[in-house]
Structures are given as structure tokens and as C-alpha cells.
Design goal:
Length: 152
């Protein structure tokens, strides 16, 4: 009887280990974390709209336009509004990052007319994220600051 009990205990330990290993493997597949250098919460510092030949059409800073962008695990969400509270953009989706190109694919949007995909040239310098894109024969330049690095 002692051998039988020992055999059952050993079999239970082996099966428990197998099930635990399978659970960890499936958990890794569901929640794969893919970090990027852009992961974090960003606030818009400035946005400029220019003609294709470089003539300034408009420029706004955070006193005129407020926006937050959250980037994590190959997803993004962005919300922007005027200082009077008018919603300009609310969107979320996935992004792809390459050394010279950042691309957003919008999956959800609250404002009609949002583009489904947007491509940017980008760079990081001193905690600032610079984006540049061409939209409807205009150049849009945005500067974002990582919220963690904001000094008050």
C-alpha cells in the first residue's frame, strides 16, 4: 500500500507540473509584451501645418490644443481637444515601428473622417518625439513630450 500511495503522489506531482507548464506556455501566448522605445504616455507640445513648399499655415501649442497619446504593446490611443473642450480626435488602434517610419492603423475612432492609416517620419531627441506626415497636400509636424519627463 505504501508503494501504491507513493506512485499516486508521484503521478500527481508529474501531472501538476505538466499542467502548470502548459498554463505558463498559453499565458505567454496570450500576453506577449512587445515593448518599443515609444511606450509611454505622451502629451502634445506643438503642432504645425505647412504647405508642401514649407509655408506655415498654422501653429498651435498646448495652450490652444491639448492632446494625449498612449503607446504600449504595439497599440496606441490618442485624444485631442481644443482648450474650450471641443473634441477633435479620439482614436485607437495598432502601430508599427521602423527606424525611419511610425505607422498607425486606426481600429476605433469617435470622430468621422479619421484616416484609417497614417504614416510618420519620426525621431526621438531629449525626451521629445518628433513626427512629420503629409496629409492632403499639407505637411503636419508634431512634437510630443513623454509625460514622465515633464517637470513642474
Amino acid at each position: 500500500m505504501n508503494y501504491y500511495s507513493g506512485f499516486l503522489l508521484g503521478l500527481m506531482l508529474i501531472c501538476s507540473s505538466l499542467f502548470y507548464g502548459l498554463a505558463l506556455t498559453n499565458n505567454d501566448k496570450k500576453y506577449q509584451s512587445t515593448n518599443s522605445v515609444l511606450d509611454g504616455t505622451w502629451r502634445l507640445v506643438t503642432t504645425r501645418v505647412l504647405t508642401e513648399d514649407g509655408k506655415l499655415l498654422s501653429e498651435k501649442d498646448e495652450t490652444q490644443l491639448q492632446a494625449i497619446k498612449i503607446v504600449a504593446n504595439q497599440h496606441f490611443s490618442v485624444l485631442s481637444k481644443t482648450t474650450s473642450g471641443e473634441l477633435l480626435q479620439a482614436a485607437a488602434g495598432t502601430f508599427e515601428l521602423a527606424p525611419d517610419r511610425y505607422s498607425e492603423s486606426v481600429e476605433l475612432a469617435a470622430v468621422a473622417g479619421d484616416q484609417k492609416q497614417q504614416h510618420y517620419q519620426w525621431r526621438l531627441e531629449h525626451g521629445l518625439w518628433y513626427q512629420r506626415s503629409e496629409v492632403q497636400q499639407q505637411v503636419v509636424e508634431q512634437v510630443w513630450q513623454l509625460v514622465d519627463s515633464i517637470r513642474k
